[in-house]
C-alpha cells in the first residue's frame, strides 16, 4: 500500500534563496551620556519673567474726624408697635353627665321588623329510597387488621397545693380606679322569633312605595332600506345563491404548452459559449517572492529597511532568459 499523498508526489520545491539580514552591529550605538529625564518642552522653554498688570483698585480715602452714626432709612422710619400679652385660656374641668345613658339611636327607635314566611329547605330529596338491609361497612383492612397492645399513658402526678400563709391582695388597677356609670341595659330591637314565623312576608320598601313606574314605550328599531327583495313564493331550503345563480357553459382553456419534439440520437456535445469564447490570461507572479526578481535590478535600501528595485528595458531584459524560464515554469504549474 502506497501511503504517499498526491501533494507530496506532485509538489516541487522552489529554489528560493534565503534573504540576508541587513541588521549589523553598528546600527545600534547606545548613548554614553547620563539620562537627564527632561522633555523637549523643558529644554526649549524660556521664562519670560513677571508681567506687570494694571491695578484698578481705588485709592484709600482718609477717614474724617466725625464719628460714624450708623443711621439708615429703616431705623429712621421704623415705628415700633406694642405687643399685647398672651392670654392663657383655662380649660373647664370635665364633669360627667348626671342623665343616665340609654344607648338608643335613631335606627333603634324607628326600626320596625318586617314579618315574612318561614324559609324552606333547599336540600334535594334523596334519589333512592332507604335500603331494606343495613349497609355493612366492613373492609378488607378492618377484617384482617391485627390490633397492637398499647400501654396506658402515664399520668403526671402533681404536688399537693399549699395555700399561702399571707392573704393576697386581688385588687387590680382597673378595679381600684373604675368609676361606675348609671346605664340602663340595651333593649333588644330584633323582634321575637314567633312573631314573624306565622305571617306572610310583605315585600314592601320605601323605594317600592314611593317609586312609580313609568309607562315607557320601546323605541322602534332603525332599519335601512332593503336592497334585496324578499321572495313571495314558498321557501323550501333555497338560498340567495341558489335562487340567483345562472349556470354558464364551461369555457375550454387554450393550452400554451409547447409540442414535444423528438429527441435526436446523436450524443450531446459538451461545448458551451463559455468554453468557445474563453480566452486564458497570463497569470503574473509577484516579483517580491524571489530573492533576485527577474527584470529588476537592486539599487538601494531605505533607512526603514525597504529595498528599492529598478525595472530593466527590453534590451537589458534579454540577458535574464534563465529567470524568464523559471517564471514560465511557475505559470505552467499554477495552471495545471
TrEMBL record:
Q: Which InterPro entries match?
A: SAXO1/2
**Coiled coil ranges:** none
What's the domain of life for this entry? Answer: Eukaryota
Which residue intervals make up region (Disordered)? Answer: 112-135
What one GO molecular function would you report for this record? microtubule binding
Q: Record's Gene Ontology CC terms?
A: axonemal microtubule; centriole; ciliary basal body; sperm flagellum
Which PANTHER family did the record assign? STABILIZER OF AXONEMAL MICROTUBULES 2
UniProt family annotation: Belongs to the FAM154 family.
Q: What is this protein called?
A: Stabilizer of axonemal microtubules 2-like
Amino acid at each position: 500500500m502506497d501511503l504517499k499523498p498526491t501533494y507530496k508526489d506532485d509538489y516541487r520545491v522552489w529554489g528560493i534563496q534565503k534573504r540576508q539580514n541587513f541588521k549589523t552591529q553598528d546600527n545600534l550605538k547606545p548613548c554614553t551620556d547620563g539620562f537627564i529625564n527632561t522633555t523637549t518642552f523643558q529644554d526649549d522653554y524660556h521664562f519670560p519673567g513677571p508681567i506687570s498688570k494694571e491695578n484698578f483698585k481705588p485709592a484709600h480715602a482718609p477717614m474724617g474726624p466725625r464719628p460714624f452714626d450708623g443711621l439708615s432709612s429703616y431705623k429712621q422710619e421704623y415705628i415700633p408697635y406694642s405687643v399685647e400679652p398672651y392670654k392663657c385660656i383655662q380649660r373647664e374641668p370635665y364633669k360627667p353627665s348626671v342623665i343616665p345613658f340609654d344607648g338608643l339611636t335613631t335606627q333603634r327607635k324607628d326600626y320596625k321588623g318586617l314579618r315574612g314566611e318561614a324559609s324552606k329547605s333547599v336540600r334535594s330529596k334523596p334519589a333512592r329510597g332507604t335500603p331494606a338491609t343495613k349497609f355493612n361497612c366492613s373492609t378488607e383492612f378492618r377484617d384482617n387488621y391485627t390490633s397492637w397492645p398499647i400501654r396506658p399513658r402515664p399520668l403526671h402526678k402533681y404536688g399537693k397545693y399549699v395555700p399561702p400563709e399571707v392573704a393576697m391582695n386581688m385588687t387590680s388597677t382597673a378595679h381600684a380606679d373604675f368609676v361606675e356609670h348609671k346605664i340602663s341595659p340595651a333593649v333588644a330591637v330584633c323582634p321575637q322569633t314567633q312573631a314573624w314565623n306565622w305571617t306572610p312576608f310583605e315585600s314592601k320598601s320605601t323605594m317600592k312605595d314611593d317609586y312609580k313606574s313609568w309607562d315607557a314605550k320601546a323605541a322602534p328599531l332603525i332599519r335601512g332600506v332593503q336592497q334585496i327583495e324578499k321572495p313571495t313564493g314558498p321557501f323550501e331550503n333555497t338560498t340567495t345563491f341558489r335562487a340567483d345563480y345562472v349556470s354558464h357553459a364551461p369555457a375550454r382553456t387554450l393550452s400554451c404548452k409547447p409540442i414535444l419534439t423528438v429527441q435526436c440520437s446523436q450524443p450531446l456535445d459538451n461545448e458551451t459559449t463559455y468554453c468557445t469564447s474563453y480566452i486564458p490570461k497570463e497569470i503574473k507572479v509577484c516579483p517580491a517572492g524571489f530573492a533576485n526578481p527577474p527584470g529588476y535590478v537592486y539599487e538601494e535600501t531605505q533607512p526603514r529597511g525597504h529595498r528599492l528595485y529598478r525595472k530593466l528595458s527590453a534590451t537589458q531584459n534579454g540577458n535574464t532568459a534563465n529567470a524568464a524560464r523559471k517564471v514560465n515554469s511557475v505559470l505552467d504549474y499554477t495552471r495545471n
